[in-house]
Amino acid sequence: MLAELALAGSSVLFRGASLEAQAITAHEWIVAGPAETGKTFALMHRLAGILEGTPRASGALVRKVRTDMTGNVLVTWQRVIDARGGWSAYGGEEPKWFDHTNGSRLYIGGMDRPGKVLSGERDVICVNQAEELHLEDWETLSTRCTGRGAVVEYPMLFGDCNPGPPSHWILSRPSLKVLHSRHEDNPTLYDEQGNLTPQGVRTMAVLDALTGVRRERLRFGRWVSAEGVVYDLFDLGAHVIPRLEIPASWPRYRVHDFGFTNPYVCQWWARDDDGRLYRYREIYRTQRLVEDHAKQIKALSVGERIVADVCDHDAEGRATLEKYLGIRTTAARKDVLSGIEAVKSRLRPAGDGKPRMFFLVDSLVERDPSLVAAHLPVCTEEEMGVYVWALGPDGRPRVKEAPVKENDHGLDATRYLVQHVDKPMLEVKSFQG
Ligand SMILES: Nc1ncnc2c1ncn2[C@@H]1O[C@H](COP(=O)(O)OP(=O)(O)O)[C@@H](O)[C@H]1O
Ligand SMILES: [Mg+2]
User: Fold this and answer.
1) Could you tell which of 15, 79, 186 is best to mutate to test the pocket of ligand 1, judged by most ligand atoms within 8 Å of the CB?
2) What domain range includes position 362?
3) Of 167, 169, 309, 410, which sits with the fewest C-beta atoms within 10 Å of its C-beta?
4) Are residues 304 and 179 in the same domain?
């Protein structure tokens, strides 16, 4: 029999780390564990409970990137407050804060767009997917949650996270209490006797289907590094940068990697006067026809001067794009190893200390819900950490031989684009459909 507790006056059950999270008073704590153990659900209840329990308390709910909150943690938050009652949202489509009838307020923000989150002292700050934060982000938040002027009994900075690499700061911060969450903690997955529920069977099948480091982390909750990461130079801090206004004079490119069951990827890139590349928009979607992508691409590109459309070698896909976009496409150079080298040399810091390619934050046009549900990468940046060299018979990555053909949809597109820009083909072939 699992220890569990029904939340006073409601039918919500908590077990294990989710239960501990309802009462812990540590100043800094994080619930860590694989996907779907109930971490976010438990945190939203604790957060709401603290704010409801003290009139005029001030809280913040934060994630690394603001747009990543929509469709994720904010859905869970909304479900929790709908059940608890007394809350209203302000700020329209993209809520900026929520007020409770007792005068407490919860600000919503990303580290990229903190809004009011960082503008004053907060009684409590709750971080979703804390593994995405750098230690400096967490420390910045802690300076807004020192307890000065706090009205709640236990001011705290807390969060949830999935495992990352073993070197992650979450594992080595002495002042941080880490609670370990397990699938058995989630009553929708396991019943009171500890048997999988029908929902549990479905959820575990999704997690069992994962591969590589995502399986280790999201299925088993292990803090492991991906072995043999191809783009080990990639650093979110250096390569993913805030959005910038792209001057009309910079040439722009689109690059397409076709897919239906696997995601179709279209990236928009711009090149500055020094030759640096900026990915400023991205479609990353499964289950959609090229024709529909083409219509969306056309609408999104209005007023932009696109100098080339570089394409994966799919005759029908190219013909469809050419027809609907009224363009000629350029065949991608497909040599994998030289393409990887070309991307790597752009990721490496140049003489001025800056890399020569950047991914602008918030580039994704829409998040594919079926990829979210399957716990697969939803954009190119998310492929970076999990695109790996195949293992040899000795179990070691065969570096510079062949990458595993997984988690490579956006990265293939990136490789085609860099090859196109850096080593233009002598003869630009257009598909004659
Ligand atoms: N204690 C609980 N009671 C009811 N439903 C729960 C509970 N814990 C988790 N769930 C449900 O299980 C699913 C996964 O929970 P979530 O908090 O999103 O997991 P995680 O953040 O660990 O990935 C959600 O649909 C959530 O509503
Ligand atoms: Mg979660």
Assistant:
1) 186
2) 236-422
3) 167
4) no
